[in-house]
Prior knowledge:
Layout: H1 21-43, H2 53-60, H3 67-84, H4 96-106, H5 109-122, E1 127-134, E2 137-144, H6 149-152, E3 155-161, H7 168-171, H8 175-186, H9 189-201
Antiparallel strand pairs: 1-2, 1-3
The site of zinc ion has 7 residues, from helix 1.
Amino acid sequence: MAFELPPLPYPKNALEPYTSARTLEFHHGKHHQAYVTTLNELIEGSPLERKSLEEIVKATYKDEAKTKVFNNAAQVWNHNFFWNCLKPNGGGAPKGDLAQALERDLGGWHKFEDDFKKAAVDQFGSGWAWLVVDKGKLKITHTLNGVDPLALGQTALLTCDVWEHAYYLDYQNRRPDFVQAFLDHLINWDFVAQNLTKAKAR
Length: 202
Ligand code: ZN
C-alpha cells in the first residue's frame, strides 16, 4: 500500500498571520508531498512496502544502505506529526497535567519557553526541535535533518519544524521570530496532552 499525503487538519489560511497560506501551500503541498512520493518510489517492490511508516523509520535508521529511505520516511512521519502540533489560537502556557509535567521536569513554562526556543534556534542547518518523553521524563531535544525521537527510542510530544522551508516565506532568516510565534500562538496543547497520556500508558 502506497503512503498518502494526509490533508491538513485545518484550512490553509487558518494559521495566519503566524504561518501564511502560501507557506502551507508549499510546505504541505510540495515539500511534504515530495517526501511521500519519493518514499513510495523507493520502497516499491521491496519488503518495506508492507511495513507501517513507524516500522520503516525504526528499521532503516543507521542502515547506510537505506539512508534515503530513512530520510524520506522520517520526514513523512515528522510532517504528519508537525501539522497536528499546530492549531489556530494555540500556544501560550499549557494547563493541567502538562503544566505539572513541565514544572516537574523542565522548570515550568517560562523556562521551557526559553529552552525550547534555544534548542530550535541552536539547531545548525535543517532539523527539528522536540519535546519528548525519554525514560519517563520530559526532555527538550533537537535533531538534524530527518532524525526524530521515533528513531532514537523516545516518545515525541511536540515538535517545531526548523527547516527553512517552514518559515522562509514569512520570516526570511528570522528563525527566532518563527519559533516565538510557534510558542505563543500555534502550539496545539490538546494534541501534546494526548501524546503524554499515550506515553504514560506505555
Ligand atoms: Zn518541513
